[in-house]
Write a structure and sequence with these properties.
CATH architecture of the largest domain: 3-Layer(aba) Sandwich
Number of strands: 19
CATH superfamily of the largest domain: Zn peptidases
Shape: elongated
Distance between the termini: 33 Å
Helix content: 25-40%
Largest sheet: 9 strands, mixed
């Protein structure tokens, strides 16, 4: 359970939202923050239209350029400074503060899980929007733009600097490449806090689920299914490995998972394959548990190779290559961390129940570097994320943007 230990800066901003929280004990609200909150609610239709427009610009992972170009234009239009696209493809715009003590990155990711050619037209059915990626993460992208607009509309000067980022590489084999580049190169040494707005609802992710992802390729000479019979088969070896992996026993607590996500190989039904490959994903909330299942996986692959070669005892042997294609470090923000308390404070101000959990998001990277970070939902109600039938219920969705604003101000402070 997260303890409600509200820091002074968080309490100050709860007071600014007292009209929304309807707290009889709060002091007079900060009129600028109140104006920003009201503005967010007033323009929610525009935020939703932005969300739809974003979603109808295709952005498969590794091919986010069109959506990035649009967000570069929008960042400039909402008045951010030093707007640019870095070498990894992240779109960056800055809103300078009056002090150099705090620099917060407020990010949402550009990429989706859907391949090129996917129909990305968004359909409306009353309060329901339907379209691939409409919640994950078109909502987050629209939210951070509205936060920038609200700050300008209310003429709020912050003490800390806010760097708005529309980043690449959060989904699939993107391997968090966008955020890794921010911390390792583009903004190295500058970032003191990090918030990712990813998906929907008002949940806070304060623990990062780590993952290891591999491509395993078995190789052999291949041959005719009849004429070369007796030769070891990469597909048979892969099958042996999959069977072994399927029998792994992993703990429920800390939650640890594994799956063989993709397999491919062979050239025809009447051939012994010359290659076969699979992609494997393993995850855990615990670094130790992740390391343990990873070791089991490595052993299973080698055992499968050995068994297939020994079974046929052929002069031509199979080989195997195990390539790491994704690595997301485990991370965590303790319950009493100021950034977690900032989220609690915003929830209290808006009359929301604080809900926390673990997930695999862009925040894994700063968490692993001991930089305060959380991932938050952008409001509304999302369903069937990562499916072609993904939907977003806009009912009271403005609350997610208001919450994002308050958490942001709780961290950077108001001048």
């Amino acid at each position: 359970m997260v303890k409600t230990l509200l820091p002074t800066f968080a309490l100050a901003l709860i007071m600014t939202a007292s009209t929304l929280a309807q707290s009889a004990n709060s002091a007079a609200p900060n009129p600028q923050v109140r104006r920003a909150l009201e503005y967010i609610q007033t323009i929610e239709t525009e935020t939703i239209n932005e969300q739809i427009k974003t979603c109808e610009i295709p952005a498969p992972f590794f091919k986010e350029e069109a959506r990035a170009a649009y967000y570069k234009q929008r960042f400039a239009e909402v008045g951010l400074k030093n707007v640019r696209i870095d070498k990894e493809g992240n779109v960056i715009g800055e809103r300078p503060g009056t002090s150099s003590d705090t620099t917060l990155v407020l990010a949402a990711h550009l990429d989706t899980v859907f391949p090129e050619g996917t129909d990305v037209k968004v359909k409306r059915e009353g309060n329901i929007l339907r379209g691939p990626g409409i919640g994950d993460d078109c909502r987050g992208l629209a939210v951070i733009l509205t936060v920038a607009r609200a700050l300008n509309e209310a003429k709020i000067m912050t003490k800390g600097t806010i760097i708005f980022v529309a980043n690449v590489g959060e989904e699939g084999l993107g391997d968090l490449r966008g955020v890794k580049y921010l911390f390792n190169t583009e903004l190295k040494g500058r970032i003191t806090h990090f918030i990712s707005v990813d998906g929907t609802g008002t949940r806070t992710t304060n623990a990062g689920v780590g993952s290891n992802r591999y491509r395993v390729t078995f190789k052999g000479p291949g041959g005719h299914s009849y004429g070369a019979f007796g030769m070891p088969s990469p597909i048979h070896a892969l099958g042996r490995a999959v069977e072994k992996i399927s029998r792994f026993e992993v703990p429920k607590t800390p939650k640890t998972t594994f799956t063989v996500g993709r397999i491919e190989g062979g050239t025809s039904v009447n051939s012994i394959a010359h290659t076969a490959w699979m992609e494997v994903d393993m995850r855990s909330e615990s670094a130790a548990a992740l390391a343990k299942v990873d070791a089991q996986f490595q052993q299973a692959v080698q055992d499968a190779l050995k068994e297939e070669n020994e079974f046929w005892n052929h002069e031509k042997k199979l080989t195997v290559e195990v390539t790491l294609v994704g690595n997301r470090p485990v991370g965590d923000q303790p319950a009493d961390a100021p950034i977690v308390q900032a989220a609690i404070a915003a929830d209290a101000a808006l009359g929301l129940k604080s809900v926390f959990g673990a997930s695999s998001t862009d925040s894994n990277i700063p968490m692993s570097l001991n930089i305060p970070a959380i991932t938050i939902g952008g409001g509304g109600i999302g369903r069937e994320a990562h499916a072609l039938t993904e939907s977003f219920d806009t009912t009271n969705s403005h609350v997610g943007t208001q919450r994002t604003l308050l958490i942001t101000l709780n961290i950077v402070g108001v001048k």
